[in-house]
Design a protein that fits this description.
about 250 residues; mainly alpha
């Protein structure tokens, strides 16, 4: 039991050393620019389908469930639109989408870097005098910080569209009531709150996944374990960051 705190401190120290190496001596701007564009496609554009599908159905489900639970006839129906909007902005499109991306993007990053480690590609970069941490980790972090907020905004819009479709196709409430509810008492601060949280989550997902993949030891089995640990640790840190950021920003 006494080794557990020491092991945890060792992992935290190694994690921050990796980040320091990644940010301290970046490669040429042209190289960093090309790598970042490649990573934007991998971590961002390729995540469009899963974000759209999940957000569309979640928006529709929240609309239906809210309508089902509002039994008081004195409550106006436009409150359903308010509930869907605030649920998407405050929690789902930032935190829940980040958890989904931790599973998709985080596992992919950990697996890719893990395979590069066990096939000695990272060692080859070091032999050539390339800062492997900067070359492999920094573009992923930058790409996620730039593109994850776009995915968050996309999730909000698609989720609201899903709620509207459930009103039109499922006759939940009149669409005009739903649209009025979306516009009612709208606080633009909610948008900046969601985007800010998503940017923090982007750093957590990419850096933690890079840490576990970069420091893989062993063979292919260890790569799979590193991917699993990356997803689990990222998810826990996202939930912890969600608590801290919510308490800090919304107080």
């Amino acid at each position: 039991m006494s080794k557990l705190p020491l092991r945890l401190l060792e992992q935290i120290g190694t994690y921050f050393i990796l980040l320091i190496n990644a940010f301290s001596r970046p490669e040429k701007f042209s190289v960093l620019y090309r790598q970042t564009l490649r990573e934007i496609e991998k971590v961002g554009i390729n995540s469009f389908p899963i974000v759209v599908i999940v957000s569309l159905f979640v928006g529709a489900v929240i609309t239906i469930q809210t309508n089902y639970n509002i039994e008081n006839p004195l409550l106006p129906k436009y409150l359903i639109g308010v509930t869907v909007r605030d649920s998407l902005m405050l929690e789902f499109s930032s935190t829940m989408v980040a958890l989904i991306l931790a599973g998709k993007v985080g596992s992919s990053i950990a697996s890719e870097l893990g395979m590069m480690r066990i096939t000695e590609q990272i060692d080859a970069l070091e032999v050539m005098g390339i800062n492997s941490a900067s070359f492999l980790v920094l573009p992923r972090v930058i790409a996620a910080v730039l593109f994850f907020p776009i995915l968050c905004l996309l999730s909000i819009m698609v989720g609201l569209a899903g709620g509207y479709l459930s009103c039109v196709l499922g006759s939940v409430i009149p669409p005009s009531e739903y649209i009025y509810g979306i516009q009612y008492a709208f606080y633009p601060h909610y948008i900046s709150y969601a985007v800010t949280k998503t940017a923090f989550y982007a750093v957590i997902i990419t850096s933690v996944a890079s840490y576990f993949g970069y420091h893989v030891e062993g063979g292919a089995v260890e790569v799979g374990r590193a991917s699993t640990r990356a997803v689990v640790q990222s998810s826990v840190l996202i939930l912890l960051a969600n608590l801290i950021l919510t308490r800090t920003i919304l107080q």
